[in-house]
Structure formats: C-alpha cells, structure tokens
C-alpha cells in the first residue's frame, strides 16, 4: 500500500508508545494543541515556583516570630513520609513535593537567613519579655 508522503510523515510523527502495555498508538495533535499544552506546562512551573517562594517567605516569617526554622523542614519531610514516600512527583501539581520543599528550604543560604532572623527574634524576646517567658523559652 502506497501512502502519500505527507500522510506517512504525519502518521510516523504522531506514534506514541503506551507505557504500561508497550503498544503503539496514533496520536493526532494540532499545533494549537501543542502550543496550549506547552503554555499550561509553563504555567504549572510558574505556579510551583510561586508556591516554593511562599513556603520560603513563610519560614522567614516564622523565624522572625521566634520559631525554629528547622521545624518547617522536619514538617515537610514528615508529610512526605506520611504520603508513603512517593518516588515521582505529580506532573500536574501546582505545588512542589514535600521532599523537594525540604530540599529547597534546607539550602545553606536559605537556612542562614532564617537562622539569623531566628536569633534576632530570640534576642529581642529576651529583652522585652518578662522573666517567666524567658525561663519558658530556655526549656525549649
């Protein structure tokens, strides 16, 4: 059977193998679909970056209020363990995985900034707080 070159190229360009069955199937995609799909993937990456930035700002606010920034990392790691330690991230998720967030927040420059804010907050609390609060803080 002889196919026109345009049809043959279109057919072989749009072959896709299904991961679980290893069967080959024909996928017909238009250029507008590919453009919209690419834009949606870029939007998901942008939203993921925004969520990571929000987590970072939240950790800095927590540290400036006098809470240990290491807690944010431990919380993300614990959530990852509670979810069953998934190996793959959800490709359609707008949030980084908990494991990825723990890696982002535990970077040296991020932790140094948070720890300096934490130390400043502890010093200011010691100056302003009554004696019983100071003793309570020493327990932790």
UniProtKB/TrEMBL annotation:
GO function terms (MF aspect): metalloendopeptidase activity
GO biological process, alphabetically ordered: proteolysis involved in protein catabolic process
Top-level taxon in the UniProt lineage: Eukaryota
InterPro entries documented for this protein: Mito/Outer_Membr_Metalloprot
GO cellular component, one term: membrane
Protein name (record): Peptidase M48 domain-containing protein
Organism listed in the record: Acorus gramineus (Dwarf sweet flag)
